[in-house]
Amino acid sequence: MVVIKQNGVGTIENRQTNTKTSHQYEVLPPSTLPIYKVKQEEKLKFKELVDFCVEKYPNEDNHEFLCYSPYLAYEYLKGTELFEKINSFRYGWGYFDFGALKIVGLFDVNQVELGGTPSDYDKESYSKSKWYRFSQVLIHGILNTVVMNYLYQRPGTVHSIIQRHGMENTETSSGIVKLSKHNEDNLLKSSADFITFGFLRNFECTSSILTSIRSIPDIYDKWYFDILFDGKFKYPADGNYNPQPVYDGGGILYGNRQYPKIRFDPTEQLKDFVGHTPIQREALMALDKDLESVKVEDIPEAGDIYLINNKIVLHYRAQVNVGLTPDKQPCERRWMLRTLSVESFGYMQGFAHPENPRLIIEKGCGHIYSSNELRDFDLRNPVLKNID
Ligand SMILES: [Fe+2]
Question: How far is the CA of 363 from the centre of ligand 1 (A)?
Answer without folding.
Answer: 17
